[in-house]
Amino acid sequence: MSDVGTDPDLPARLAEGMRRSVLSFPLTPFAEDGSFAPEAFEAHLEHQLAAGPGAVFVGCGTGEFFSLGLDEFGDAVATAVRRVGGSVPVVAGAGHGTPLAVEFARVAREAGADALLLLPPYLIGGTQTGLVEHTRAVAEAAGLPVIVYQRAQALYEPETLARIARIPGVIGFKDGIGDLDRMQRLVRAVPEGLLFFNGTPTAELQARSYAAIGVPAYSSAVHAFAPEIATAFFHALRAGDTAATDALLDGFFIPWVRLRDRGPGYSVSLVKAVARTRAAAIGADVGPVRAPLSAPGPAHLEEAERLLDAGLDLAARLARR
Prior knowledge:
It is a single chain. The protein has a domain at 9-226: Alpha-Beta Barrel (TIM Barrel), CATH 3.20.20. 50% of the residues lie in helices and 10% in strands. The chain has 13 helices and eight strands. Strand 1 (23-24), helix 2 and strand 2 (55-58) form a beta-alpha-beta unit. Helix 3 (70-84) packs parallel to helix 4, helix 9 packs across helix 13 and helix 11 (266-277) packs across helix 13 (298-320). It starts with 9 loop residues before the first helix and ends with a helix.
């Protein structure tokens, strides 16, 4: 495992950010005509940064990477790099098949990203050897540190991850599956130093369990629309405040997941719809989702808003204790 890129301290900076705070996965704002909205993105990033995330991951799953063209992806990464100003690392998504993933990686590097999150290949599952070669091709072409993302058709065996960890530039591994048995075997298979984090769709539900196997860091989709709730949970978890984490799980996160599971694509579209209702509070209207996603129906949005109000109230009460 070795470093790639212009910042040899990046793995250490990421590790420190993962220890002290939640990882932010901002939304990608679109105007009503569907075009990328850079001013709204800057305002959204302002609100994300004010909550003190450990790193900002741009154009990934929550940021609708799957619907972005190369040019607007580059604009989004460049906007984030400019606004973040080096205060925390900026990690950009890259994905699809190998040739397109390489192109996205090159655009991210040219836009100033610090590292890449390598999303699962499009549509088809590959062999373990194929996953190694896919990662190698992107890492070599990008010239940036790479975090590999396990999800959907990209499932890594321990022996495979051990091979991938030796590819120059591979610095981390994000798990979006939630199989703790598999994850423990993966953690034990690689040399100390590879950065692991929990990236399941609502990572807070499994945060305790991941921490127990040596993976305390996690990303939070909730941070995109309610960083107050996400950071309240993070700090309670780090403090060992079981009463607070239980209250947040029961009062917000578990009912949120039940609602999220009631619609296809709600892990993104529900998040974005609720963020739009908070436009005044977060300083930006992040706009609609792009097809094939669509906005949740009125009943589900009303339920989401009730949960949001309850979660914000609970986070505020915990902060006053």
